[in-house]
Structures are given as structure tokens and as C-alpha cells.
Amino acid sequence: MAVAIVTVAGRTYRIGCEEGQQKRLEELAALLEGKIEAMRKNFGEIGDQRIVVMAALEIADEGADARARNAALEADVARAREETAQAQRREAAAAAGVADTLSGAAARLVRLTQTISRRDEGVDLP
């Protein structure tokens, strides 16, 4: 097990983590420390425990907002995919209709060409 050394609210902590996760934990601790420092500037000294809790709640709030935005975006993507699938089905149906129409027109042209050919050959047609 690896160990990350982080500082939060002026205190240093050794935190066990998976190998390779040390840098991530250090970055997260720096984020928390930045929030704490910003709150100290805004509110002054209101107690370490209280300011750490407030900073953690602000980060949790940001995370909840990000998850909500992500869920909304995922719903938008799902709707867009469904709309695309519907459009593709409509396009396929339209293409099939065009193909049927062209096939019918081609069959009529073949019959007309045969009729004209027989007429040109002198065959009496009704």
C-alpha cells in the first residue's frame, strides 16, 4: 500500500492509498486547502473544524451540482440518440417508399417499351 502525505488546515496527514493514487490525493487535499484558505479570507478565523466542514460541504455541493449537470447531459444525449434513431427509421421508410415507386415506374416503362416494340414490329395491339 502506498502513502500520500497531505496538508489540510495546516495539519499534515499520512493517508494510505493504492499505488499511483498519491498525486490524486495530494491534488484533492490542495483543492480542499484552497477552499479553506478562501473561507478564512471571507469569514476570518472561525475554528479549524468548522471551516474544514464548511469547505467540505462546499466541495460536496459542487460535486452534487456537477452530477446533476452530468445526469441532465446524459438525458439530453439519450433523447438525441432516440431522435436520431427515429429519423433513421423515417429515412429508411421513405427510402423504401421511393424504391417501391421507382420499381413500379420501371415496371410500367418496361411494359410500355414492350408495347411500343410490338407496335413497331407490326403486331396488332388492342
How would you portray this structure in words?
The protein is mainly α. It has one domain. The protein has 2 helices and 2 strands; from the N terminus they run ββαα. It has helices at 22-43, 48-120; strands spanning 2-8, 11-17. Strands 1-2 form a two-stranded antiparallel ribbon. Strand 1 and strand 2 form a beta hairpin. Helix 1 packs across helix 2. The longest helix has 73 residues, at 48-120. The protein is rod-shaped, with a radius of gyration of 36 Å. The termini are far apart. The relative contact order is 0.06.
Helical coverage, percent range: over 70%
Give a short account of the largest sheet: 2 strands, antiparallel
Question: Structural class per helix/strand content?
Answer: mainly alpha
Distance between the amino and carboxyl termini = 97 Å
Number of helical regions? 2
Low-confidence stretches: none
Q: What count of domains describes the coordinates?
A: 1
The H/E string reads: EEHH
State which percent range the strand residues make up: 5-15%
The number of distinct β-strands equals: 2
**Shape verdict:** rod-shaped
